[in-house]
Structure formats: C-alpha cells, structure tokens
Amino acid sequence: MVNKKAVKTALVLGISGQDGSLLATSLLKEGWRVVGGTRRGIVNKYWRLDELGIFDQVELVNINLQEPHMVLDIVRELQPNHIYHLAGESFVEDSFHLPRVTMEANYFGTLNLLEAIRTSSSETRLFFASSSEVFGSTVSKEALDEKTPFRPINPYGISKLAAQQLVEIYRERYGLYALSGIMFNHEGPMRARNFVTRKISFNLARLKMEGGTPMQLGNFDAARDWGLASDYTMVMPEVLELKEAQDFVFATGKLSTVREFLSLAAEAVGFVPVFEGKGLFSVCLDRSSGLKLAEVSEKYFRNFDTPPHKGSPARLLKMTKFSGSHDVSVIATQMIEADLHRRKIGHVDV
Ligand code: GDR
C-alpha cells in the first residue's frame, strides 16, 4: 500500500534495477513516499520489487530521460525532496559496442534532469550515481579518493565522468544541491546476471542443483573492490541530508580477484573448489565430485579491461553513519543463498 501520509517524496530513477530497488526499500522503511521511474520496454522488470515485497508500496511513473519535456513535467509536478539518478547504461563492456547509446543515456539523461531541477524545482536535492570507471587508467597502490585525477578509458567511463562534472558545474554555477556518488563495484542478490559475481552465483546454484555444463568466464585474475550494494544504498539518503553537497567515493578499500570470489561462492554452495591450468586454460573443479564448475572463454576476456582500483571510503566514514561495507565472503554467501532459494522455488529466470 502506498504511504499517503508521507511528508517527504523521493523520485528514484532506475527503480527496477539493483540499486533502485534496494534504495526504495530503505526509503520506505524510513517513511518516505517513493516514486519510481522506469522506462517502458524492459522485460520482466519488476522481479526485484516483487522479491523485496515493495511492489505495492511504490508509485511508478514511465519516464524516458532522453525526453526533456517528460523529465520536466514529472519533476515540476512532483517537486520531490530527493532525486536519485540510478538509471542509465551500466555494463562497461557494452559501451564499446554502443558508445553513442551510452553517452546519450548517461550524459544527456543527467543534463535533462539537471535542467528540469534548475528550472522548476530548485530545492530538490540530487544524488547521481557515478562510477569508479572515471579513474580508468590510474594505477595506484593507494586507495583512490574524491581528489584523485580522472582518466576514463572506455565510453562508459567518459559518459559517467562527463555527467559527474556536469553535476559539479550545476552545483557551483547555479547553487543546486547536487552530488555524485563515485560508486565502486557493488554486488548482492539483486545484481543482474551479466555482471561477474551474479553470473557466478547463478551458475553455481544451477550446477549444485542440476549439474550440467561449466560456466564460462573471462579473466580469473581480474580484481575489483566489491562492496555490498545494500550497504551503499542505505547511506545514500544520508549524504543528501548533509549541510553541504559534495561528492563521495563508495568503496571498501579492498581488492579481490574473480578467482577469490568464485572460490568463496563455490564453498558457500558446498563445493570444494580447486583451480588448475593458467591464463586462458584455467579451470575450476569441485574436488569431491570432479565436476567442472568454470572454465575460461576468450569471449569473456576483455582486451581493454580497466585495471584494478580500490577506493577510499574515508570521507563517507567521516561524514555519515556508514561503518564500512560487508566482506566479500558475506556478499558471496548472500548471493548463493538467494540463487539456491530461487532455484528451489522455480524462480530462475531473473
Ligand atoms: P565492471 O563489472 O565492468 O567492473 O563494472 P563486471 O562484473 O562486469 O566485471 C568485473 C570484472 O570481472 C571480470 N570478468 C568478467 N566480467 C563479466 N561481466 N563476465 C565474465 O564472465 C567475467 N570474467 C571476468 C571483468 O573483466 C572485470 O574485470 C561494474 C558495473 O556495475 C558498472 O556499472 C560500475 O560502474 C562499475 O562496476 C564500477
């Protein structure tokens, strides 16, 4: 049931995605009215809202961020206290094949939103989800923070950086309360299956319950700073309530490899993972049954992969109640539990 008594309204753009659905859940718990923006045409788009049990509690509006009039009408009518811009293209590798689509979604979508806020709802506070991909080619042993120079190396990173800098310009030039969360990788049961952690948990649950062919992965040695998505979405409303708007890195400060994540997830499902071979010939097997769990396929090997970056959550820790994200072993366990459960109830098409 929609909360008609709520005094504060949040517009969550991208509510059907991982972050949008998790954020909506925490906003509803805090008594907010949540209006969710989605685009027409996304298949099976409300499974997360259903699983989280909030489908009936949010109001949904059809909004295409590419259409300035549509954005303007909704923002003007709603006059939301907060807007969370979590929509757009999110799969880095696709951005090489869809550079224009990526730029239009991520840059022009943000521009249209900023213009709508500036001209019709200037008290609205905006959270824009940027990405650690803005750091691109930077290689550093130190954790990267809000002051680290930006050097994107793919169309996705460029689109996020352009939008992030636009947010900064509107903050400084027009005095809008607008900020960017520079989001390092964040995972959990609501992750889409094209991202590596969910690909792993989905396939391990399949292999555990039904056996079958091994999953194919790219580079086992690729590393990322993986946090738990719900830890990050929980703190987003708080950063918008601070006195002054500024950008925040959302990260853990720790790196793990795909191999490590695969190993933790395989253990969580009850396998005994062992690795054999090197590079393109790497495989992961279950020692007790001999079942092959994963093998490397060139198809998923990225020629231009972004180097590993770890981020510093120091500013977030200092300015908010955020106390750090859960460990990658907790993330793997939560994801495995969710995928085993889905398979048990026959809900595997998500
Ligand atoms: P990423 O996430 O590109 O970092 O972007 P992804 O999970 O796709 O890749 C993480 C790392 O794993 C390696 N990898 C594989 N990746 C996928 N998808 N599939 C595979 O089979 C595979 N095997 C190895 C990749 O090469 C990479 O190194 C995510 C997204 O959420 C972005 O939207 C966000 O901005 C950034 O994180 C921060």
TrEMBL record:
This enzyme's EC code(s): 4.2.1.47
Domain of life from the UniProt record: Bacteria
Enzyme class at the top of the EC tree: lyase
Pfam name, any one: GDP_Man_Dehyd
Cofactor(s) needed: NADP(+)
SUPFAM superfamilies registered for this protein in UniProt: NAD(P)-binding Rossmann-fold domains (SSF51735)
Coiled-coil annotated residue ranges, if any: none
Gene Ontology MF terms: GDP-mannose 4,6-dehydratase activity
Family, per entry: Belongs to the NAD(P)-dependent epimerase/dehydratase family. GDP-mannose 4,6-dehydratase subfamily.
Protein name, UniProt field: GDP-mannose 4,6-dehydratase
